[in-house]
Design brief:
The chain contains five helices and seven strands, in the order αββαββββαβαα. By secondary structure, the protein is α+β, with helices and mostly antiparallel strands. The chain has a domain at 80-169. The strands form two sheets. The chain has a four-stranded antiparallel beta sheet. It has a three-stranded antiparallel beta sheet with strand order 6-5-7. The longest helix has 48 residues, at 2-49. The chain is globular and about 50 Å long.
Length: 213
């Protein structure tokens, strides 16, 4: 009888071990599934975070600058990297061919808009307050020559590779834009006082300087 009990005990032990392993396997599978879902959620959140503003748009072939009425270049054009846009308080979109027009429009229209420029590397939109601004010798539509980097390291690399390039503060560009606008308004006043030919010549030169290639 003792010999018969021994195999029976072994069988019971094996069955108990198998039964205890199954929940562990399921639990492990469950944890793995949860990890996969968590990763997917994280990936989705990163994708959502990368969208600067869902209201942002792209200029069309016939889009013109709200400030100067010059052409606003599309993303795939070599000059498109200088294009800018603003989202106004009422949700409407305004496009600009260069950063000076973007900044001056706020002053002219007494507005405080959300302002966006293109990242020089990806050509995607970014808030102007969130980028590193680099002054270059590149020909931009209105001769401002500024480009923008979301990644500061890329801005550093560009400056290292271009000896005449340097970082600039947004406030400095605002001040320069206001000064340029002031001079333009003074010339406009002169034109209204009878020197219309001089004013016309100035406007023509302004456009030629900005949009000449």
């Amino acid at each position: 009888m003792k010999k018969l009990w021994l195999p029976a005990l072994i069988v019971l032990f094996v069955l108990a071990a198998c039964t205890s392993e199954k929940p562990q396997v399921k639990e492990k599978e469950s944890e793995q599934g949860a990890t996969e879902i968590e990763t997917k959620v994280m990936d989705d959140s990163v994708q959502v975070a990368s969208l600067v503003d869902s209201r942002l748009q792209e200029p069309k072939e016939d889009t013109v600058c709200e400030m100067c009425n010059m052409k606003v270049y599309m993303k795939d054009h070599e000059m498109g990297v200088f294009s800018a846009q603003a989202i106004k308080e009422d949700g409407t979109i305004a496009f600009y061919d260069d950063i000076g027009c973007l900044l001056n429009a706020e002053v002219a229209n007494e507005e405080n808009n959300a302002k966006f420029v293109r990242d020089f590397v990806t050509k995607e939109w970014a808030k102007v307050e969130d980028v590193t601004i680099v002054k270059t010798e590149l020909k931009s539509p209105m001769n401002w020559g500024y480009i923008y980097f979301v990644n500061k390291a890329e801005a550093d690399t560009y400056i290292q590779e271009n000896s005449n390039a340097y970082m600039e503060k947004l406030q400095k560009i605002k001040d320069d834009a206001l000064e340029r606008r002031k001079k333009m308004m003074e010339k406009k006043a002169e034109g209204e006082n009878g020197d219309s030919s001089s004013m016309h010549s100035s406007d023509m030169n302004h456009g030629q300087e900005g949009h000449g290639h």
